[in-house]
Write a structure and sequence with these properties.
This protein has about 240 residues and is an alpha+beta fold. It contains 8 helices and 6 strands, in the order H-E-E-H-E-H-H-E-H-E-H-E-H-H. It comes from Evtepia gabavorous.
Length: about 240
Amino acid sequence: MQKNRILLSLGLLAALSVGLIWFGLSQEVSPDSNAAPVSQAVPPTPVSQEETPDPADWRLCLVNPWHPLPEGYQPQLTQVENGHQVDSRCAADLEAMLADCRAAGHAPLLCSSYRTQEKQTQLYNNLVQKQIARGNSRSEAMAKAAKEVAVPGTSEHQLGLAVDIVDTQNQVLNRAQEDTAVQQWLMEHCWEYGFILRYPPDKEEKTGIIYEPWHYRYVGREYAQAIRQSGLCLEEFLQR
Ligand SMILES: [Zn+2]
């Protein structure tokens, strides 16, 4: 009987000790209830103006008339609005940009996104035919078409990182887009969501594509900010 009591006391003592240790530990790891929660998010790495951009970074993948898509390139796609698809890595930022543009009182319309090789070929051939119908020779027609619709295999839309956005009030893809409320807002804010106006005015020789105040390319928030601050187009930025 006496032995049992001693064992019971020892057991209670052990339980109490464990409880005290646990209490002490939990006090140590529990944050102060009044303290702000500690964010688990890793802050984005800032890209300094002097830093040489890494051309191997997927966000900076250069696709233009002189740099075709990597062989067999197939991005992982995510469906966004109106049945459009984009590279999954830019879908959330694109949706946030469109939502905030609408919250600012505008009416953006996503009208082009990821394109397959077949789709790009179809668009390009249609434009070549139009140029031929205007009296151009086939080679002239192909050269003229290429400035407006990239030659298949050289379109950023095939990367899944480019989108065309117009104002619902004016859905014509011409220079007048730049005066619409949607483009005014996008040009001012797109970099905050990781997008750049990819074909700016006066950069046609560098980009190979006419001024397109509707075509936005995702490069990630850090690079978008750096490119905006630099005033360079993507080709120039990569050659710094
Ligand atoms: Zn485009």
